[in-house]
Write a structure and sequence with these properties.
Elements: H1 3-14, E1 23-24, E2 28-33, E3 54-57, E4 66-72, E5 82-84, E6 87-90, E7 97-109, E8 120-128, E9 134-140, H2 144-151, E10 158-171, E11 177-179, E12 183-190
Parallel strand pairs: 1-11, 3-12
Antiparallel strand pairs: 2-4, 4-9, 5-6, 7-8, 7-10, 10-11, 10-12
């Protein structure tokens, strides 16, 4: 989007009661990032890396899918100070953009039984001003209802899950509402079968699921390895 278009959108948002909102901008989702095990997605480990989609083996149970969002556009949120009589009446950048929630919806091919059709509202609070151009944050794309539905898919069958995410925000000064615009993230979902592995290892990371993006490799198996209290059930 051009600078001129951003400026027009921002002017629209600044006009309280103008009827323009919600419109796309000035903040938008610029890319998806992989979520490191340590949850520190702002490190150089993910610099220049982006995700266009993923895969998810739900065999470990209670599936989740973690990803980081890069929200950009803070440079488009700028306003000059209002002065009069040699005094500052209102400071610069007084009208900040705030992302208040993410609205997530799901579709699948073939259809996943009981996959929720209602919107999943994920509350958040991300504030932008002219010095906050990019804000990374990690989320689990699957609602509890979506997770339960995916946990029940057929073993060995592949599904294409399309996750649509839209950030909803407001301007702190004018109250004008805006959206980031809808962005989609495809996930290939399946339930692997591991006849020689009665127990799948449970990862200790809070930012990765055992069956997420393993590139066809099975989730870690506890059979044949020395169990540890953190990753495998204790031996019988």
């Amino acid at each position: 989007m051009t600078t001129r278009n951003h400026a027009l959108l921002f002017a629209c948002l600044m006009a309280a009661g103008s009827g323009c909102a919600p419109n796309s901008g000035p903040i938008y989702i610029s890319r998806f990032l992989p979520m490191p095990d340590d949850c520190n997605f702002g490190t150089a480990a993910v610099a220049g890396v982006f995700k266009s989609g993923g895969s998810l083996d739900v065999a470990p149970g209670a599936p989740q899918y973690f990803v980081a969002l890069e929200l950009a556009g803070g440079a488009n949120v700028q306003s000059t100070a209002v002065t009069g009589g040699g005094q500052t009446i209102e400071p610069a950048n007084r009208n900040r953009a705030i992302i208040n929630e993410f609205v997530i919806t799901y579709t699948s091919t073939p259809k996943v039984t009981n996959l929720p059709t209602k919107e999943y509202h994920l509350a958040t609070s991300v504030r932008f001003d002219s010095t906050t151009n990019i804000a990374d944050m990690g989320i689990n794309l699957l609602s509890p209802e979506a997770s339960q539905a995916l946990d029940g898919i057929e073993t060995g069958k592949s599904y294409r899950l399309i996750v649509t995410i839209n950030g909803i925000g407001s301007m702190s000064g004018s109250g004008g509402r805006f959206t980031t615009g809808e962005t989609t993230f495809p996930i290939t979902v399946y339930k692997g079968e591991y006849p020689k592995c009665k127990t799948l290892q449970v990862l200790t990371s809070a930012c990765n699921y055992n069956g997420q993006d393993r590139g066809g490799a099975p989730p870690a198996c506890c059979d044949g390895v020395t169990p540890t209290p953190m990753t495998c059930p204790p031996p019988p």
